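Need tokens for this chain, all 596 residues.
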Amino acid sequence: MKRLITCVLIAALCLTCFAACNNNESNGLTRARDYLFSMYKDAAEITASDFQRVNKVTIDGTVYDIEWTAEITSGPEDGVKIVNEENTVTVDVNEKTSEEIVYTLKASVKDASGKTEELKFNHKVPVFKESSWAAYAEASDGDSVVVKGVVTGIIAKSKGNSSNCLYMQDSDGGYYVYNLAEDPVSDLNIEAGMTVRVTGKRTTYNGTYEIEEGSVEILDTNKTEIEAVDYTEKFTSAESLKDSALVSKQALLVTVKGVEVTDSDVSKGYYKFKLGEFESYVRISSSVCPLTKDEQSALKEGHAEHLGWTADVTGVICVYDGAFYLTPVSAEAFKYNSLPSKDDAEMVAFEKENLKLPEKITEDTVIDLNTTGQGYESVSVSWTSDNDCAVIDGSKLKITLPDNETVVKITAVLTSGSASETVVFEINVDSAPKETYTTKIESDPSAGKAYKFVLDQKNAGKIYYFTGEMDGNYLATSDRADKAVDVFVEETDGGIYLYFMNGDTKTYIEIYEYQENKGGVKLTSDTPASVMVWNADSKTYTSKIGENTYYLGTYKTYTTFSVSNVSYISDDNAANVDVSQFPGRLATVSAETAGE
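Here are the structure tokens for all 596 residues:
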């Protein structure tokens, strides 16, 4: 049997908060049993691959050991084994069983005197059978699947990603294997083109089909070259980018030929292309991308240098909000063909469409201006400003924050031959700060005191402050402390809530279950469903949602508050705090008027 080491929430070892909110007549042993039950009561009955369970919990500082045993009532006697680890056990199941295994997983919770409390969980290991692509696509969330295919893309922590994942496909469709416990490069030695088999659980996240809790078996180390499926006709004949003809075969390697290279949104990793009525994009994710950093840079530079060109674009099908886009598996995702011929008016119109300036400036800034077209150099661009705080010097726009907020109008005139068009950009320019600020992270926040909720983003070299707004699915920030809202701690049973005043409305910051076993953040005027508890090690608050514990913070060079699993900042990953992971923290801020 293949043994799979998967991630487990060792946070269970220090959840004394559970005991604090159960201050009743039940003794510690019973509470330990009840807590263990709450951890695993919703676990899937079908266990098609190995999984883990904790072997101790802590209540009020007292550690209770847990002994796990498997009682097989149907199927091979050796079909399920318990393998003890330091703080966990691995339940090692026979993934290739020829007959169904029905078993009871029994937990004996023990105290220091030897007294025990027992729990039982009923499980089954299904008969081993490879799933067809159609069966995989039609499976319900939580169903076990076994799929075989050729690897087309590898996402590995050893390559700088936040998760270990695979893209693979067979003759019928593609598969996305998400969040493998083992690194496909450094642990499994998988290379693109190899044939592998994956056993795991079919899930759906934001419309994306995934296989989670997967175990991988290499079937053939010989490399099979996969030819991308031509999706040009499907793209041009689709009713929308959500057309099932485009998106149904997620993770399949496809090419769309003769596209026009259009705009990019570097902050989101979107490198856009257009064909017929529709514009889509190749996305370079900052957290899970098959390309190395050098390959990502090559793709970005190539896209910027070929604006307006026709190209053939290749990647695996992905969906966002149900709409088609591509993830690159090669730096040569765009094969550039030529710059199409346009008349003067068409060239001017093209360059006007792709001309952009920021909508808001919050600090002294210098912006590069195009004085010729990005694609068509015969198009000239001249610039003027209506405000002294925004000075145009050749190909530079220099903005210096004024004493008061203002709106600057920047005018661009594009000309080629006899064709000319004008576009006016309005930029909201913030006022210059009148105070300097000292920010002190609080090690012991208390209720009723006003704080700022901050990110000490050392990679960006700045502190960012929560502004009381959402930025898409995340909490918005500013590097200006005077733009921040006051955040307060409100005590409740089992922990606290964080809130701020939005006018006269008390508004809570809530970590919630965005999708099954995945956390998100939202603002609500209702009492949150989940409480936060203080994590003294990282000086931040966490919330337990389902089987997972989450915190608010950011990572890499991002500047908004998102939700991450506490495993990213605890145990072996504790060293990541303030290096690559930046938890949100409460802080006091003191102001000093400039010049004092």
